[in-house]
Amino acid sequence: MSLLNIFPQWLQPYVASGTTAILILLSLVIVAAWMIWLERRLLGLWQDRYGPNRVGPFGLGQVIADMIKIFFKEDWTPPFVDKTTFWIAPFISMAFMMLAFALVPITPQIGVGDFNLGVLFFMAIVGLSAYAVMLAGWASNSKYALIGGIRVTALSITYEVFMGLALMGVVMQAGSFNLRDIVEAQRHVWFVVPQFFGFCMFILAGVATVHRTPFDLPEAEQELAAGFHTEYSGMKFGMFFVGEYVGIVMVSGLLVALFFGGWLGPGVDAHPWLALPYFVGKTFFFMCLFILLRAALPRPRYDQLMAAGWKVCLPVVLINLLATAGLVLWHAQHGGA
Amino acid sequence: MSMQPPKVTFGAVVKGIGTQLRSLFMIFMHSFRKRDTVQYPEVKPYVPPRYRGRIVLTRDPDGDERCVACNLCAVACPVGCISLQKAERDDGRWYPEFFRINFSRCIFCGLCEEACPTNAIQLTPDYELCEYNRQNLVYEKQDLMISGTGKVPEYNFYRVAGMAVKGKPKGAAENEAPPVDVKSLLP
User: Which residue, among A236, A184, A220, A229, has the nearest Cα to A301 in the 3D structure?
Assistant: First the structure.
């Protein structure tokens, strides 16, 4: 607080929130970058090898080496692409994933945004972030990229429907779209218990949102070269790459906030400093789960994924929604909660 | 044959989820397995003694060089990476004036070793031959010569084959058999 006093009175809240936002943004990008290292080490562990272990202790410096390399790579824009769109797409990809992280409530004190319509905002951002891939695929003016772009179009229609409906169960039980209220509503029992099917469906949709294996159809390497970012190189490719990991951190954070009680945990009321470790630990768990999914599961065929989305996931979330609604109404009638 | 859309039954969904969870669990259990990686520069792999690696020129037990510059190795070499020049000592014994192996061409087939009548040229289990400069892969005689006898410790070509000295041809000395006439068909 004392440092803040050098600013005039009316400016202080802006400076404080701005500093918090920048700090969170920086830590998000750094965590996302180091997640590349984490992923390579964990994939190595699960494939009975080591992964990067040469640069620095435990290979932690690998990220720095890769970053230096990618910064000095030629940023080649092929002559046949649609230049403006081709340039915008990677920025959209990274920016929207970061923007969505703004509403993740980290601790009662730490967090960028506190929106009353947080969940809806998240849905909107996820819908828009699909444009990054679509635009990249279209602007690249090449077959593989275009197929990747088209795949993401169909994929996003599939998963966004049941993603939104999966979250509505949580919203009904918490009675709020605000993520902080949702976290506070889990004081007695985490929503993963009453909303187990919602959780399962949301984690599927979350994997699809960030185009991770097993739902990495838009960049399916074995089929489409590199899919939508086939024509990208240098830092523009790097932004897609880091954007993907920012997305993983963001979706993990949201999963924790929505279904695993956010910063809540035993003893957090008596010792408020425990909030941050609880949140970070839970988020880390889900980040590792994302990597385990990639290590273990093969990519489904395109039509299989669509079929599962429409014929299995959608009915499940609809039934879940009805059951939750009935439960909430029953509680309201009988004065349970 | 018409394509039927996959039939989504309740049992199929449950079974599918089950197999996916099973593979997740199985992959996770790999966390506790031993890793297959050999951490190479620190841990060297076992190399059998007959491994065909870096080529050396050996000496006989008396410490003299074994090579007699017969050029058989250079002839046997399928990629032509060996070159040498014969020279002659005062007593008529041949030796290579220079002996050069271009290891950037060598395929380590070992035919030179098989061709060598004096066991001079030998392949060793040393496989770490990397250089930053390609020219450094051209080994000269001083790079190839070793001070030991290599794989055949007791062997000295002239002790076995005999040697003509002044006034005394091959096979004429004590305990010596006359040399085999290699040009005759008689037993």
Answer: A220
Which of A73, A123, A114 lies closest to A239 in space, CA to CA? A73
Residue A190, judged by CB atoms within 10 A of its CB (0-12, 13-18, 19+), counts as: buried
Per the CB < 8 Å rule, is A48 touching B27?
Answer: no
Residue B155 tokens, joined: 């062997």
User: What mean pLDDT, rounded, does chain B reach?
Assistant: 87
Predicted pLDDT of residue A100: 84
Tokens 């690998």 found at: A62
Helices A234-259, A196-209: axis angle to 10 degrees equals 170
Extract the tokens encoding B13.
């969904």
What's the pLDDT at A112? Answer: 75
Distance of alpha carbon A127 from alpha carbon A241, whole angstroms: 19
ipTM of this complex prediction, to 2 decimal places: 0.76
Chain A partners within 8 Å of B42 (Cβ)? none
| A319 in B contact zone (CB under 8 Å) | no
Q: Which residues does A318 contact at the CB level (< 8 Å), separation at least 6?
A: A165
Looking at this protein, which amino acid is placed at residue B156? N
Q: CB of A74 within 8 Å of any CB in chain B?
A: no
Which distant-in-sequence residues (6+ apart) come within 8 Å of A88 by Cβ? A135
For A99, the token pair is 């923007």
Q: CA nearest A103: which of A84, A120, A90?
A: A120
Q: Is the pLDDT reported for residue A335 higher than 70?
A: no
Q: Which of B6, B30, B37 sits opposite A304 (nearest CB)?
A: B6
What is the 3-state composition of chain A as percent helix, strand, coil, each rounded to the nearest 5? Answer: 70, 0, 30
pLDDT (tens digit per residue) in A197-224: 888 888 888 888 888 878 877 777 777 7
Give the predicted TM-score (pTM) of the model.
0.77
Contact in structure between B108 and B79 (CB atoms under 8 Å): no
Torsion angles phi and psi, residue A203, rounded to 5: -70, -35
Distance, CA of A167 to CA of A161 (rounded, Å): 10
Cα distances (Å, whole numbers) of residue A250 to A32, A146, A184, A247: 9, 27, 19, 5
* pLDDT surpassing 90 at residue A187: no
- Nearest CA to A265 among A248, A280, A250, A287? A280
At residue B6 the predicted structure's pLDDT band, cuts being 50, 70 and 90, is: low
- At residue B85, the pLDDT reads 93
